[in-house]
Design a protein that fits this description.
mainly alpha, extended
């Protein structure tokens, strides 16, 4: 009587899992490459992001118009049409004036980062008895410093801020996904043995 292998019948799913982790690792490498490019060329990356936001706003405006004409109360239709107009204006503004739009987005980004820093400080004071609350304060101070650098150097920070921040984000996302994909690949390899 032969004993069955614990992975008998799993060869099909293991092949699929190996292919999936391969694609996951490839996507992670693309994220890393795009992140490095955005860090090396932050102005180009910032303009690209501004154009992408412009197209997304236009798409959102069209979506609001479609939603408005699907029916509903008069209040709903008016709200959807007004939101559609607002999104379309914002989208066409980003597309037709990308340098002004990137400057506006940079100021908005600086404001959001500064507010995040203030909220982190509030969080620190609420959790300061916890063991790791010092890290919250450290994060808050770094966040405030970064937001302040962008805010006080605006509009010249428009050239580098969005591109570098998105580049670092893309690179860190890629590195994280690469590590996860490699760990999954090792796990699939161990399961196949």
């Amino acid at each position: 009587m032969a004993t069955a292998s614990p992975v008998h019948g799993l060869h099909g799913p293991l092949v699929v899992a190996k292919k999936a982790t391969g694609w996951y690792i490839a996507a992670a490498i693309i994220f890393i490459v795009l992140g490095v490019f955005a860090i090396l060329e932050p102005g180009v990356a910032g303009l690209g992001i501004t154009m992408l936001i412009g197209w997304l706003l236009i798409f959102a405006g069209v979506t609001h118009f479609i939603t408005a004409f699907k029916g509903g109360s008069a209040k709903h239709i008016i709200f959807q049409v007004l939101m559609g107009i607002l999104y379309l204006v914002g989208g066409f503004y980003c597309m037709s004036h990308p340098l002004l739009a990137i400057s506006t987005l940079t100021l908005l980004l600086a404001s959001i980062i500064l507010v995040e820093g203030v909220l982190e400080i509030i969080s620190y004071f609420r959790q300061r008895r916890d063991g790791a609350s010092g890290w919250i304060l450290f994060n808050a101070l770094v966040t405030l410093l970064l937001g302040g650098m962008i805010w006080f150097h605006w509009p010249s920070s428009s050239v580098w801020a969005i591109g570098i921040l998105v580049g670092v984000n893309l690179m860190m996302t890629g590195i994280t996904r690469l590590m996860l994909g490699m760990a999954a690949r090792r796990l699939v390899g161990q399961t196949a043995e």
